Task: structure prediction
Amino acid sequence: MRFESTRTALPHRLVHRAAYYTSSDHLLEVAVPLVEDALRKDTPVAVIASSPTERRLRGVLGASAGLIHLPPPDARLRGSGQAVITQRYRVLRELTDWAGSVVVLAEHHPHRPGIQPSAWVEADAASNVALASLPITMTCLYPTELEYETVSAAVRWNHPELVDADGNVRPNPDVRTPSDVLTMFPVLAPPRLGPPDRELTFTPWQLIDLRTAITEETDALALSRPHAEDFVLAVNEVASNAVEHGYGVGLLQIWRQADRLICEVHDSGSLREPLPGLRPPHPSSPRGRGMWIARQLCDLLHVWTDARGTHVRLQASRA
Amino acid sequence: MAKALDEIALGDHACVVMDSDEQHWEIAAGFVAQGIRRHEKILYYDGGRSAEALLRRLREDNIDVEHYLRTRQLDMVAPEMTNQLWKLSLPEMAAVVARTVGAALAEGYASVRLTDEPAGAVHRPAGHSLAEYDRVVHQGVRGHPVTLLCQFERTDWPTSELTELCEMHSIEVITPAIYDDGLLRITRQAPFSTRVSGEIDFSNRHLVRGIIDKELDRALRTADQTDEIQVHLESLRFADVTTIIQFVQAAEGFPQSHKLVLYGVQPCIRRVLDRCGAGFTAQLTLREALAS
Result:
């Protein structure tokens, strides 16, 4: 796995826009000028779209257009907007490292199975946090008739700029901060997994027992040593946060599945920011890097809160 | 008489009282390594299933353990065998000692080094106290080129019996540490060289930071003879992200004339250092472990 350096503090450079379309033909009418404009300026264009849409786009633009295909989110991440955006951050970071500024077109998928409407709100809010320092102009393409008011709210509140029917860009007066958005639409808990295979209550002085337990489980799953060590570090970082912010006691739950290990860390504390560890930490800041690194090390890290406290699910899969 | 580990001489029969795992492995590995350097036959009577940790520590100290196990210069006696010793009568024990020393010398070694973890003797399976066995062993090795170290875990023994055992030994090995909390041990190896062994996490990192800062500060104040402050991390097996950032920031705080040199950084720690920007810190250098 490649890791960026966080030693350079990039200014906030994400431009996040929403554009509407009425039909699949209209989608092309909206998208094609955006692509052509970028290519005229020698700016690479990356596309996150359904296969039919991408095929039609390539058909209109021609094979020489050089669109960059970005794969859809890993199926295991569906339902966690923050995990999808963490993965997307890694891909886009790598892309912008060698290509510089990039234009991204992202098509809304209204009927992706297993995804609650609020996951779209979460993903859009997470984009504003995680991608903020990347030199990206991202236009999200939404149908005018959105099936859920929730998704409609995601569009209105999460996009600082809107592209109108004539292709003109204007500021969005309804935009809100990610914290405000997620106060209105809190991040949902992931699907329940049933009784855990193993459970461990821990205090700061028992983090060693937690690491031992995770190591035993990663050994049993036959994870590679670096992967296992990284996962132990990730769970330890989350557990350290739990005892620091959750009145000194945390709960670890472990589920063994055929090809993966799932852990949850629970504490009774609250969160100051709803999506901790999504934003690359400032180089001079001694705090906040643990959760960010934990997100980079896991296949999935999903944080949510409820009346009982803060909860984090982490997942490591055998390659 | 108190002696440091490297002051142990041929013919000494010493004891050591240990308070932590890291201290145990430091002493055990140090005693074995000294025997390897002196080309002695080494018999390690493992009473606490510590072989794995001991061999790991020897590898961290850059010792080719597999070679010495293969040539049988180092013989690890399994706990099952070690614990059988405490079921012997005293004459049987004397015979075993004579046979063991004789066999080792017959292999061609000029001298023999023995060390044991006698936790299995605490409950006296044959009715004899460890002190009785120790006298027999002492008599058995007298006049032979044998160095003997008895290792006592403090928590294994009643205080009165431990005191008696220590008083029986004319030499007690001392291993001073700057810090030891059972999870982490910090020792000073030389004026500008510190060794950090074990694990650093949320429970101890605030204490560790203070100690490491103080050590670095002390070294910098007297560092006109060197421009390198060395920290040996060969046995640091876990450090959380906050701790690693503290190492990086400590180096960033160094004057340009000095460097913080981290030796023998394990891959899991090195990956975190990379993620925390260690590569961008001019005053921080990573080096391979030194040959023991």
In short: Chain A touches chain B at residues 3, 5-7, 204-205, 207-208, 211, 226, 229-230, 232-233, 236-237, 240, 243-244, 283, 286-287, 289-290, 293, 296 (CB under 8 Å). The two ends of chain A are 12 Å apart (CA to CA). Residues 225-245 of chain A form the longest helix (21 residues). Confidence is low (pLDDT under 50) at residues 1-9 of chain A.
